[in-house]
Amino acid sequence: MTIQSLDPRITRAGIPTEDSRPLEPKEDLDQFETWEVFHQQKRGGHPEHAGSLHAPNAQLALVMAKEQYARRFKCVGIWVVRTADILTLSTEDEDIFVTNSEKKYRDAGGYRVGNRVSAFKQQQAQANAEGTP
Amino acid sequence: MNEAAINNLITQFADDALIIAHRNSEWTGLGPLLEEDIAFSSIAQDKLGHAQALYNILHTNFGGPSPDAGAFTRDESQFRCCHLVELPIGDYAFSLMRHFLYDAAEWVRYEALESSTFVPLAQLARKIKGEIKYHLFHAKTWVVQLGAQGNEESHARMQSALNETFALALGMFEPSEFDGELAAAGIYPGEQQVQQRWLELIAPVIEQATLQLPSVEEIDRSASYGGRKGYHTEHLQPMLNEMTEVYRIDPTAEW
């Protein structure tokens, strides 16, 4: 007996309904390594991290990256980098950032320029409307 | 205005694209790797788009059927696709090698069509150039990877896939009674020239993949001719039956 499916491709595959082979654990390293994908939405723009994928080498990672992460929206470029090649801090070193929230004096949010920018824009618009340079 | 010749030319390209799109989409959900499943399905979807655009050119310029009617209501004798695209998907090596040989031919065809005097075709060729460039990049990368950088098994399977598909691929370039007329009018350079450029494009890739290209001279290429005249392999009609199954339940249904 083979599996009879509504999907003719599955029926054609002739898969036995009861597979008598025992389930064996997969060998280690059965999977390809992972690659990180960065996409660039406009020329000169920042490459932004889009996600990761499995691939056997850099060239195929690039081929796969295009369809996994750049098939829908505007994109002008892709980077791929082997996940293992990214140097990162371990989670137990997260404490080096722990007092960040106390150092308000480093926070650029303290500069209140929003009003001045709006005022400047308004002034420019008015000047343009009046025809003065 | 070389209407019959253009009609014949576009029907061939559109039917090739439609049938290979359907065949390659049969891998959707069954591909060897998740990433590859997505990429191959996406490429198949692009091919379907090319077929639709080509049927649309016939529809708007020569009063041909709508793309849906053209795709879903003809029987095999009305199709002009080559035998290569009709064959079942086989193993993944077969499907990849067919994809490589087919997309190399598309690259050459559309490159020539970019300067076609038939403007709608030239416009389409320029529009889809990037898609075909990616399709060929995908195919080349796999052929070289599995031929030269895999193992003994992957090399052997790619070589037998090449041996199986090469003669069929020559059927893509079956000469047409319109070849001379199309070349004279600057519409399309003709299959003989396209086949030559195709061989020049695939040979270095096959070499890089450390595979042996069968000799064109030793092949009876007429064995894979006939598709352009409506004579097909036994695989086409069953595929059409399957492809049109849902459409035939209610041809007026809107999706």
SSE order and pairing:
The complex is a heterodimer of chains A (133) and B (255).
Chain A: H1 8-12, E1 33-40, E2 48-55, H2 58-69, E3 77-82, H3 114-129
Antiparallel strand pairs in A: 1-2, 1-3
Chain B: H1 3-25, H2 34-62, H3 67-72, H4 83-86, H5 92-113, H6 119-148, H7 152-170, H8 179-184, H9 191-208, H10 236-243, H11 245-249
Helix pairs in contact in B: 1-2, 2-6, 5-6, 5-7, 5-9, 6-7
Taking Cα atoms only, what radius of gyration of chain A do you get, to the nearest Å? 27 Å
Oligomer: heterodimer
Largest sheet of chain B: none
Beta-strand content bin of chain B? under 5%
| Count of beta strands of chain B | 0
Overall pLDDT metric of chain B: 95
Low-confidence parts of chain B: none
The outline of chain B comes out as globular
Q: How many individual domains of chain B?
A: 1
String of helices and strands of chain B? HHHHHHHHHHH
| N- to C-terminal distance of chain A | 86 Å
Principal-axes geometry of chain A comes out as elongated
* CATH hierarchy class name of the domain at 29-99 in chain A: Alpha Beta
CATH architecture field of chain B: Up-down Bundle
SS content category of chain A: alpha+beta
Explain this structure.
The complex is a heterodimer of chains A (133) and B (255). Chain A has 133 residues and is an alpha+beta fold. Chain A has a domain at 29-99: Phenylacetic acid degradation B (Ubiquitin-like (UB roll), Roll). Chain A has 3 helices and 3 strands. With 255 residues, chain B is mainly alpha-helical. In chain B, 67% of the residues lie in helices and 0% in strands. In chain B, helix 2 packs antiparallel against helix 6 (119-148). The A-B interface holds A 8-9, 13, 32, 53-57, 59-60, 63-64, 66-68, 71 and B 26, 30, 33-36, 38-39, 42-43, 134, 137-138, 141-142, 145, 149, 242.
